[in-house]
Specification:
This protein is mainly α and about 130 residues long. Helices cover about 65% and strands about 5% of the residues. The protein contains 5 helices and 2 strands. A two-stranded antiparallel sheet has the order 1-2. β1 and β2 form a beta hairpin. α2 runs antiparallel to α3. The longest helix is centred in the middle third of the chain and has 21 residues. The radius of gyration is 18 Å and the shape is globular.
Length: about 130
C-alpha cells in the first residue's frame, strides 16, 4: 500500500513541478541564490523587488489590458521611455524568453561576487 501511495505521489507530484510558470521558476532561482550569498537583507529585498518588477513589466507588455510598473512611466524621479513593440510568433513563448533573459541578466550582475557564485551560475545557466 505504501509503495502504491509513493508511486502515485511521484507521478502526480512531477506533473505539478513541470507546470510551474517561468516566473515561479526564476523566483526559485533567486531564492536559491540568496541562500548561497552573504546575509544582506536589504540587498536581497532589493533583488527580489527588481526581479519582480522586471517580470511583471515584461508580462504586462504582452498583455493589451495591463499597465507596466516602470516601462513607459515615471516612478519617483526616474522616467523610463518605452514605446512598446509588436511581438511576432507565439506570445507565450516570447514572454517566457523575455522574462528569462531579464532575470538571468539581473542575477548574473547581482550575484557575480557571491561566495556561492559557481553553484548559482550553474543553476541559472541550466534554467536558461
Amino acid at each position: 500500500m505504501r509503495k502504491l501511495l509513493f508511486i502515485i505521489l511521484l507521478v502526480f507530484g512531477s506533473g505539478v513541478l513541470s507546470a510551474q510558470s517561468i516566473a515561479r521558476q526564476w523566483n526559485e532561482e533567486i531564492l536559491n541564490a540568496i541562500r548561497n550569498d552573504f546575509a544582506r537583507p536589504t540587498v536581497h529585498a532589493r533583488n527580489l523587488f527588481h526581479s519582480s518588477i522586471a517580470m511583471y513589466d515584461i508580462w504586462a507588455t504582452f498583455d493589451p489590458n495591463a499597465k507596466p510598473f516602470l516601462l513607459g512611466n515615471t516612478v519617483g524621479d526616474f522616467t523610463s521611455n518605452f514605446e512598446g513593440f509588436e511581438a511576432s510568433g507565439d506570445i507565450s513563448e516570447a514572454r517566457k524568453e523575455a522574462i528569462s533573459y531579464a532575470v538571468y541578466r539581473l542575477m548574473k550582475h547581482r550575484f557575480a561576487n557571491s561566495p556561492g557564485v559557481e553553484d548559482i551560475f550553474q543553476s541559472i545557466d541550466a534554467l536558461m
